[in-house]
Amino acid sequence: MTHRGQSACAPWVIAAEPPGAEAAAALWRAYYTEVSDRWYLLHEGRGTPREELAREIAANDGDGLLPPTGLLLVARYGGAPAGTAGVRLLDAATAELKRVFVRKELRGRGGGAALLAAAEEAARELGAGRLVLDTRHDLTEARALYARYGYRETPPHNTEPYADHWLAKDLRPPAAL
User: Fold this and answer.
1) What's the structural domain count of the chain?
2) The CATH number of the domain where 80 resides is what?
3) Where is the N-acetyltransferase domain (predicted)?
């Protein structure tokens, strides 16, 4: 892993990019489409209405993932945009993990683990000693990934309407605990 906002775990390369960059925006659309369609299929037996999808993507532009208090990491696999993870400070000691996503056809190749490691490093560089996140009940693969890498269930840290699980990981070295 390299420093200063870029990490590599061949063939994965992860670097910070602006949320509005073409690759980041395309990955955000893919992420939101997948998680929204999952929810609608589970609860209403249909995909997300296209007008709602367009409205929600436009409303979630990633402004909270800009320096100096956040960033969006873009993972590339073999040079092609393949996944994202966002980190933003909630306070001086706590960062929040957002938009963790790997394209479906590339899952199982280490991208999720590489993104988590890069996001944890980014959170530490922002000064956070703790990383929190929320996720939904139906995102079982994500919950399994977080558990595998030491994230534990916590009480809610936000009031997100679609959140079912809240998790956290202490990022401080064991001697600092």
Assistant:
1) 1
2) 3.40.630.30
3) 26-172
